[in-house]
Amino acid sequence: MVSIQSIPSTPSSLTHIDLQWIVKHREDRCTLCGKCTSVCPREAIYLTYRRQRMPKLDILRKQRGSEYRTFTGVRQRMAKANRCIGCGMCASVCPNEAIAPVPNGNDARVRMMQNEKGEAATRGGRRNVRYSLLDKVMFNRISMLTDPALDAGRHEFELNTLLGRVLAPDEYLRRKLAGEWIPPVREIFPFVIGSMSFGALSPNMWLGLLQGVAYCNEVLGIPVVMATGEGGCPPWVLKSPYLKYIILQIASGYFGWDEIIRAIPEMQCEPAAIEIKYGQGAKPGDGGLLMWFKVSKLIARLRGVPEGVDLPSPPVHQTLYSIEESVMKMIQSLSMAWGFKVPVYPKISASTSAKAVLNNLVRNPYASALLIDGVDGGTGAAYNVSMDATGHPIASCLRDCYLDLAKQGKQNEIPIFAAGGVGKNGNVTQNGMALIMMGASGVHIGKYIMQSAAGCLGSERNRCNVCNIGICPKGITSQNPKLYRRLDPDKVAERVADTFMAIRTEMKKIMAPLGRSQSLPIGMSDAIGIEDADAAKRLNIKYIC
Amino acid sequence: MCRLALKTASEAFSPYEVLTAMEAMQEGYDGSGLGLLLRGISFVDYKYRNSDPILSGIAHTEGALHRLHDFMQARGYQLKYDHEFDVNASLVEAQDRHKYFVRVYGTPDSVKALSQEELEAQYMHTRLDLRQDGLDNDADLTVFSFWPDVVTIKEVGWPLDVGNALGLSDGRVKARVVMAQGRQNTNYGINLYACHPFFIQGIATMTNGENTAFVPIKEYLTGMHHPGYIGYQSDSEVFAHILHYVTKQLKLPIEAYKHVITPLRTEELNVHPQGDFLRGLRNACRRFIIDGPNCVIGTMPDETCIMVQDGKKMRPGTIGGKPGEWAMASEMCGVDAMIPDRDRSLDFQPMRENMIIVSPDRKEFKIWSQFSPFPLHQAA
Ligand code: SF4
Ligand code: SF4
Q1: Which of A424, A451, A472, A484 for mutating ligand 2's site (highest number of atoms within 8 Å of CB)?
Q2: Number of CB atoms found within 10 A of residue B76's CB
Q3: How far is the CA of A22 from the centre of ligand 1 (A)?
Q4: Of the candidates A31, A128, A314, B216, which lies 20 to 30 Å from B368 by C-alpha distance?
């Protein structure tokens, strides 16, 4: 054994079996085209040469020996900054299937090292847990006898939901008769593209989404809306007729709101709604975070900040004294800004205290809805510990809130929207409809739409998840033109349309056997069951086995 | 599937006529229960004054009957007439029916002095308290209705057999409006409160088919904490409560019921003369949207009769008849059996947007459409 100093080993030295992803390269197939190394967002692989021993056996002389040759190949880097993220871009560009990342079956020690210089691990994506309770929900109240199942292909279905405060019937009639104010209500598709900011997403991604949403509305007749996230909205959109498909978000950093307020007089239509973000499921207690890598010239202009600086939003709305007061004042002032013609609702992270917020909203005549974001929600940037261990699952939080409203007879007044993990394993419609039958008026999807419409590579095996540092290999969450030009907005738009058409069909396929077609089955809890007795009890739905 | 039959005529007739007509609709029907609701009552043995409330139900024990007696007396209701059915117990499948009661009461002066609304609440509370009393005592007392000019009978078994068991063919009770529902898939264990027609404060409905939106509607009605919005042993009870809510609580004209349970689609409302009002109404009453397939037949305290379909219109109903006499049924042959001598070419099956209304004068039936202007000045 040699002395420790003579080999290059430090406490944080790593080798490939310590990394989460190991790049397998097949020399026999590689033509050295170099495409993989040039596409790799991490510079995790490099072309290099190696010396190779060629064993030599001279039979006549009965002698063994060696010859050496130099060859060129692809190798993986071990430095943490260059660790492979398993995105698979190398594999996707390789013409010869010569390279691919494989998950390390060993213990990835790199996890223990991701705190250099005292910096705790940050990333994008969502909680790295693949299990989804929503996947276990089954729709089991099947119509067969007195109520025949419907023909999903030919029957007409009412699939839309309402976003906005709905008055109690007697109060509606009273106000209508007295000519008083009736709160604005939007009829929308129950799957909403959840808030992803114009800074978090690349311009091409944003444009693609917006084009897709416009196509869904104007051509397909699916009234999809999308939320901006914090950070404003491009001025051309604010002044366009597309604004009606957009939910503008205001969060604790108030980024982008100078532009928005200034644009009000020039707006051709009203936005779909205003979302006030108080919390986010992926990172409860944190404000938004746009890291300096992503603060490009365009983003800086939109947000009214200098270029290339970190943009952390405070965890709470600083200008206000208490959350109740904040909710009340902000909802009121934002409603006022649009002449009480735009629904204004808060977004909170799922929590054991969600019911208190809800009850506060019930008493606020201007509150239009509540969006609750569960622990499985995604984010562009957060501390790993926030994402993995902080928060509350959406199902029980939503159910508690809905049943609480139902007890007060207010379930039609304040629609609850649910988010966080919808479509985590691809079962987007099933997950969404399960939440709707538990009482949600609709659901928000963020990560799923990135995966479905733009091919986001992120997964709960911690694949990719580098959305925070501006190197998104697909160009979805990068402000670097070299990267985001990889993403064709037209193709994203096409995928958005594909996605919503498929969701619409699947909704019908779920509703038809339940004999439902005349209205979205909100709170139809008799139609669902779950193969988990504890969850069934907690959610007050049927246990099935 | 359940069978529905309603007959309304200016001249009172025996409910037995409707039961015999139901025989025509027997094909494919397992005939396991009967509910009857009569309005415009006359008794052969007693000169009935139609403002006196009538209590209908079943006492399953002698004790229950005594409690009922004491209860009514304590509240100051004077028993004026106790209708005795000629019961043939051997024809009734259930064994625990001590007495089917139909009792006419004199309202105490203190109650008479109440406003109409208070009086109606009083009648409802009396019924609900008695119902609760029965439930608290091993379900030995079942109370169906307590209301002026309304008699209700519910029993398990083949409808005509039930009629024979109660001797309804003797014509001692007659009515101007008879609603009859033949239940399907019923067994002896059934709670009689799960049988149609459902009744609340003078309003009654009966339905066939399943109500797939039952749970959300029930939760919404329950959340209103109205004392009468209870029960829900049947998914169809909500139809009666919604009709009650729309006409009594919201005080909207009866046509609004149709707009509430099967609102027009957005595209249709966009071109409707009162689209704005109706869209708001649809949103406000969104939890009441039914999701059938159902045919709902209802009657009001003033003897108005209605028939509507759910939005899918997979349970057609038919109306036919002649001035002074109209019949509605879930099967066309039922109308034939109730009023054979009519012009069949004038029979009508309401479409998804229609509401059939037969007003108390019974001169004609009105085919009202949701696309027509809504009869409410405030909506204009
Ligand atoms: S999987 Fe991604 S990060 Fe890993 S080597 Fe390939 S391109 Fe680079
Ligand atoms: S592909 Fe882009 S958006 Fe998706 S996880 Fe990777 S970096 Fe994030």
Answers
A1: A472
A2: 13
A3: 9
A4: B216
